[in-house]
Amino acid sequence: MAATEVTPxxxxxxxxxxxxxxxxxxxxxxxxxxxxSPLGLRYERFTIALIFLSVSTFIASSLFLPYNSDWKHHDSxxxxxxxxxxxxxxNALSVLGLGNTSLVELLCVGVFxxxxxxxxxxxDLIHPKYGGCGGRLRFVVSFFSLVDLASxxxxxxxxxxxxxxxxMASNFVRMFxxxxxxxxEGRYDLALGMVDDVVYGQRGIIAVALFVxxxxxxxxxxxxxxxxxxxxxxxxxxxxxxxxxxxxxxxxTSLCEIDSWGVVDCTAAGCPPTSDYHEPCWNVYRSxxxxxxxxxxxxxxxxxxxxQHSVGGQLLGTITAVFACAVFALPAGIFGSGFESEIAKRxxxxxxxxxxxxxxxxxxxxxxxxxxxxxxxxxxxxxxNFLHLQTTTxxxxxxxxxxxxxxxxxxxxxxxxxxxxxxxxxxxGSFRLFQLIAVMLFSLEYILLMYSxxxxxxxxxxxxxxxxxxxxxxxxxxxxxLPYWIMVILSPILPNKHIALLNFAEFCLILRLFRFxxxxxxxxxxDDVIRDNLDVLTVTGFSAVLLxxxxxxxxxxxxxxxxxxxxxxxxxxxxxxMWITLLNLSGECPLAYYSSxxxxxxGIIGLFATAIFGVPIGVLGAGFEEIVTSQxxxxxxxxxxxxxxxxxxxxxxxxxxxxxxxxxxxGSKSAYxxxxxIYVLIGATVTIGVxxxxxxxxxxxxxxxxIAVIVFTVEYVMRFVGVGADPEFANESHGILKRLxxxxxxxxxxxxxxxxxxxxxxxxxxxxxDQHDEYFRMLRLLRLLKLDKYVPSITLIDDVIRLKxxxxxxSCFAAATLWILFAGLMYxxxxxxxxxxxxxxxxxGCYENCSMSxxxxxxxxxxxLTGIHxxxxxxxxxxxxxxxxxxxxxVIAAVGVVAIPSGVIAxxxxxIVNSKHRSTDNNQGNNAxxxxxxxxxxxxxGCPAPHSAFGFTVDSWQYSVKAYLDGKVDEGTGKHYRTPFxxxxxxxxxxxxxxxxxxxxxESVPEIDRSVGNEKGNFFxxxxxxxxxxxxxxxxxxxxxxxxxxxxxxSPWVYATTFFGIVDLLTVAPWYIQMLLSSMGRMNGDExxxxxxxxxxxxxxxxxxxxxxxxxxxxxxxxxxxxxxxxLMAIIIWVGSSALFFLFEQNNPNFRECxxxxxxxxxxxxxxxxxxxxxxxxxxxxxxxCSQSAFINMPNAMFYVAVFLGGEWGVVDFTWQGKxxxxxxxIAGIALYSIxxxxxxxxxxxxxxxxxxxxxxxxxx
Length: 1261
Known about the structure:
Elements (H helix, E strand, L loop, with lengths): L26 H7 L4 H24 L17 H7 L17 H19 L1 H4 L5 H9 L2 H8 L2 H9 L28 H12 L1 H26 L6 E2 L20 E2 L5 E2 L16 E2 L4 H12 L11 H18 L1 H25 L24 H11 L3 H24 L5 H4 L2 H26 L7 H9 L2 H19 L7 H12 L7 H4 L4 H8 L1 H26 L5 H6 L3 H12 L10 H36 L22 H10 L5 H23 L10 H20 L13 H9 L2 H18 L4 H4 L1 H6 L18 H7 L1 H26 L6 E2 L11 E2 H4 L3 H12 L10 H18 L1 H19 L13 H8 L12 H15 L1 E2 L6 E2 L2 H24 L2 H7 L6 H23 L10 H6 L1 H8 L2 H11 L5 H9 L18 H7 L1 H26 L6 E3 L20 H7 L4 E3 L5 H12 L10 H45 L1
Antiparallel strand pairs: 1-4, 2-3, 5-6, 7-8, 9-10
Helix pairs in contact: 2-4, 9-13, 10-11, 10-12, 10-13, 12-52, 13-26, 14-17, 15-17, 17-19, 19-20, 20-35, 22-26, 23-25, 23-26, 26-35, 26-38, 27-29, 28-29, 29-31, 34-39, 35-37, 35-38, 35-39, 37-53, 39-50, 39-53, 41-42, 41-44, 42-44, 49-53, 50-52, 50-53
């Protein structure tokens, strides 16, 4: 059992080992240092303040450096200011000969030096093991001692040893002093301390998941390298030397060439290599090593180069987004669930400790109670009854009237932000009048509520009125109207700020949306969440802040001098670095061209730090969901349905029954095969519909489409005829009514929309239907919905909504309110933000010098962009300070809350699918995911291996080979062991596998590959030949000994067709195929590289040392019922959204690119790039000079949408129709699409966990 930390979260009793003598004169000093005396407590608070002062001055110091000249206040801190706070330059303290320093730094170093000396002096009082000289050495290398030394020693080294250098000792090391905060409680911080508990408790599963993740990373990196190594769009010149830009503003990478080794030559683009710069521009996928960073980003769900991938890269990107990301996320998912379990365990322990206590120390104050009735004979009493108790119909109508005004002010504010519409512009005066009336009404209501509240005795007197004024609703009322009246007062005084003040005042009016809280009670649960999780939030929040500042500081140092100007600008100050690092820690990576050290740091952040940083965010979201769910339990509706298996229609004749059974695969093998053919045709026609959107393939596979239409027509007719036997329409007694109901049913409409346009276009060529053929072709994709008949998925959504309706109402109100409020705040922050440039947005009327103000032009454009951020993605980072502050709160709190409705839908879907399949589960007595192999394997337990047909000698050889390959079992103890020869062989193949993987990686590096050469007999070829020889021998031996291997079910064929046999074959077969094709002269260099890259699959042979991938099929089977339904739904959402994005965005000028010779905007005679309605029209006028970068066809759209559904929005500047699709994906699509991934997480843990238990049991035996 894992050891669990049981130290109370805010313990005032510190671990203390008393010294041998209680009269030790050092004891008062020790108590002072540990904060156990009144003076010590003051010193503790002083050190905390000093730490924060030191770190704050480090963060602020970067704002006043000379290269930060674009900040208008960069020179506002003179020599005296610098001497006091920062120490950036030579100042008055330079006379001390200590280099650039400050009074703050001298104070901190002095205090912490004395503190360390005192702690060193009393170290044996902390623990007896620190006694004596040896003990003091152990103390020096302890964690907190190293923290103290790291935060002070560099100052002395910089000041007295390396006087002429600047080690940043007076700045950067200040950041380490935050770690001293962990000493305040006398123990490690909870979040960091829980890591060992989580790792230990999940050690087996994490090890397996890590092996799976690393293997997927290596394999995908190799294939991305293969696909993109010659892609000119992946050539990077952002860090090119100055001579490349002497005669041009940018380098045209399309003119660059990539040789057979993968080296880029941009001489034709004006950037030739020199002796100092051998490759000034390079392909970011030039080797597997460089490819691994970009692949890692994509496995995190980030696609920073989404628009630059080749067709092969897009295919791999789609596979990554759909499958590989889910597999790679297993370690993080398991680690995260381990953290949640630990937090839940600690919360349960805490609740057990607090049981029996009279009070938790928190009192829920409610300022008004409805158990008091006002005196109707007085004005105050009547108002109290009318406004507070709402006992009459008139008061209810007044409440509805005021709620209408709340909704009205929200709508009016949104419409008033639209300035591009002339019709709405003429109504702005009416909008202002409506808002004025609303403010007056709201103000009058607030005054009357405050006045009448004193009718209640609890609200009388100053204390009672103050308590009532602090009520949630009264606070909302005041905050919604007070800014408006302040604006009225200040506008004459500050005429230049009138518009800004008016916009803010109008925005505050929509705060009254919180008044609807009385119907949902969603937001008032926040204080419950914070109160219940205050301890966890405090310490994990501190860990998150510590990680944030730590990684921000490191990346500031590594990237502020990045040769890429854009990267350097984002890290030129610590506050700037903190903005980007905040996004990194939330799981985002909006920038990518890091230095080598920066790439390592970002990789560490993505692999480890995000899990810890996300704990407090997850606690907030999970706590909110838990309380909302517990307070709004839903009772599932009774299932109303007809049991089709027992239904017999009295009016159906035998022909109708035969038709019904045939199309539903019942009654005969021919019916079964017909149903299967429908599955195949649906898949084929959907694939054809996708392919036909590619230029040049518009009429491809037309005969197959014709056959499919005929078959679907026959199927529809048979369903129409067999309606009488269909239990779904059993309630209708008349045959005509049954058929009419069938025709307007969901599946019938889907069938008709998929086949009727084909006949109309064929019957009336040139008609409106034929002219809009591309739109009607997309209707063929609706055939995917036909599969819902066989695997219910989309039709279960209404069941989910009924099951979770109460929780959905509450959580959707919270999510929608936060969405609108943050959209409004982002509009206020960014609609006048011209600080940073972005790409041109011609669709929005901006052709040059565009900024975020174009994207946030009004509330309607702000809503979808804010929705993207609320899904946790930040594709846009060009925000000013106010916008960054708002998005900080989006990251910390809003993302978790807004995601709750999606999570509720996902959990409800899983519940319903599982409940529908639980009764049909016949896998009793077996483990999760068992198949025929696992069942047969257990049946063979204790059964002897069959004898060889070639006699006893061959038997003995097979047993010997089996013992060499897999070891022996001691007949006496039953324990598994290996002979020395077997151990040597196992170690040899382990080394051989690892060195083969390293050889593949090294061979991909152009410099190494070129130095080795391609001549026959080179090192890599010889090493490969010998490797194949040994792997072939191993494969033959395993086939030979399979008759004695229970793992192969005593069958060579079973071994050859299992995971291990296929992997063993893959390790050698490509080499033999390559040799055969080379001998026939049918192999060029690139084709040979493809076969060499396939050697990366040898890493899968490590499965022999750690079982992982061979269990993935069990994982699938353990969750196949949910995966079938949710997988179909995910495919429908993916393909359907792709089709909509393709239709709406294929001619979006925001994604259009033209040759430099084509004007951006032209005249009527010579139109420009963005003057054409479509890219095709542009190419007709300027042949071959116009192109679309995104959504050019369905495969391309499916790649982008796969990325979107993974939570990464590679592009965001859509048309208004595309924004509606975007909002759908933000609200529900991403959550529904991710259900299969969550199911895989659960099943992986179950299957691997059972495997570990079985191994442990075998070990114990």
